[in-house]
Amino acid sequence: MFEIFTRLADWLVYQLMGLSADTKLGDALHFFVEDVSKIYVLLVVMIYVIALARASLNVERVRDFLAGRNRGFGYLLGSGFGAITPFCSCSSIPVFLGFTSAGIPVGITMAFLLTSPLINEVAVLLLMSLLGWKFTLLYVVVGMGVGILGGVFLDQIRAERWLQSFARKALERGKQQGKQQQPAQSSGPAEKLSFAERHQFAKGETGEIFGRVWKWVIIGVGLGAALHGFVPDGWIESHLGDGQWWSVPAAVLLGIPLYSNATGVIPVMESLIVNGLPIGTTLAFCMSTVAASFPEFILLKQVMQWRLLAILFAVLLAAFTLVGWIFNLLTPFI
Amino acid sequence: MKTIKVLGSGCSKCIKTAEIITKVAAEVGAEVDVIKETDPEAIMNYGVMSTPAVVIDEQVVHSGSIPSQDAIRGWLKS
């Protein structure tokens, strides 16, 4: 089914541009054209289809659903909804406060917010097409695991102590209200959407998401192509291929200043793995790039005190390092 | 004169929302005062979770996206 993209790249690079498949440039360019065209087509089709299905899901409904749930199950649900609910990262603060003022524990809210950048439909789709379903499943399980355990940990240390005072008060009020009755400002019964409305929504989503991620695909695949064509075969494997213990924390640290979304980083992952970087090290690098970024953390300062921010940051870095080590150990058995 | 607040943390969509409202208001000749509200506590108090959101006379009329020009015309008329 994906053969057509190989043909397209053959035709464009080898015939039209007259490059030889044996040159580095030809090889890198072929890889670039094939991957970019494949990813673009997949993105447009899949974002549309997925958006049709989830047109009626939004953060308001997730909040109403999570409010007043029992805790143990709450983390799993919070993380799961984080993976499938669409929302722009510029809305993280209003979402955090919306959940908090509905009395939802900080840990469950954070399970939602931590999982959200790591897993989304675009990321899953790219992973499936570039690295196969096994790796995708692994990625989803690990991503949700980080969100869930991070959330549990934050509640264990009673992280709400270190919220900014207005947010802490909102949480208290929310808990009181929750005990008296069901959520005060419920968004009403689920409205039934007609197909035309769903189509409108899906069209809008496709345009918007594609508009946001297309350049990341170019950057990501471009980097991947450069790795593919110009880093000598076996270089990564012979230098980092044994999964030396320090390579994992090094990869996590390297990922902090690099900021990308999952869409841009996945094509790079593909090249790193194909070039022989161990899976754990690759995962650690990519998760750190996607989820631990300074701009996002500065935003969270509006609702959290420095102390909680520092703890959160440390938790994430430790989690990604552990993920890397565990996967490097397990690789021989996968 | 209507006071219109655009709620949002200053992301590009919120800025566009404020611009488009100002533009439509000028077109239909409505007198408006467009204010950008970026304070998270204020946004929370309106119960808004998806930004950009639009508040007219303290009522939330829209949230989660850049409103369409038609919608804006409708708000300005009433």
Q: What keyword list fits this structure?
A:
heterodimer, A: 334 residues, mainly alpha, 16 helices, 75% helix, B: 78 residues, alpha+beta, Glutaredoxin, 4-stranded mixed sheet, 41% helix, 27% strand
Write structural notes for this entry.
The complex is a heterodimer of chains A (334) and B (78). Chain A has helices spanning 3-16, 24-53, 59-66, 71-84, 92-101, 106-118, 121-131, 133-156, 165-180, 195-230, 235-240, 247-255, 262-274, 279-291, 294-300, 306-330. Chain A is globular and about 70 Å long. Mean pLDDT of chain A is 81; it is low at 181-190. In chain A, helix 4 (71-84) crosses helix 8 (133-156) and helix 6 packs antiparallel against helix 8 (133-156). Chain A has one domain. Helices cover 75% and strands 0% of the residues of chain A. Chain A has 16 helices and no strands. Chain A is an all-alpha fold. Chain B has a single domain (2-77), classed as Glutaredoxin. Chain B is of the alpha+beta class and 78 residues long. In chain B, a hairpin with a 2-residue loop joins strand 3 and strand 4. In chain B, helix 1 (12-28) packs across helix 3. The longest helix of chain B has 17 residues, at 12-28.
Determine the fraction of residues in helical runs of chain A and give it as a percent range.
over 70%
Please state how the strands of the largest beta sheet of chain B are arranged side by side.
Answer: 2-1-3-4
Query: Structural class from helices and strands of chain A?
Result: mainly alpha
The main β sheet of chain B shows up as: 4 strands, mixed
| Integer-rounded radius of gyration of chain B | 11 Å
Q: Which band does the percent of strand residues of chain B land in?
A: 25-35%
**Helical proportion of chain B, percent range:** 40-55%
Largest sheet, strands/sense/barrel of chain A: none
Number of strands of chain A: 0
- Estimate nothing, just give the exact number of structural domains of chain B: 1
- Any idea what the shape of chain A is? globular
* Strand proportion of chain A: under 5%
Order of helices and strands of chain A: HHHHHHHHHHHHHHHH
Question: What is the overall pLDDT average of chain B?
Answer: 85
Quaternary structure type: heterodimer
Secondary-structure element pattern of chain B, one letter each: EHEHEEH
Could you say what the CATH architecture of chain B is?
Answer: 3-Layer(aba) Sandwich
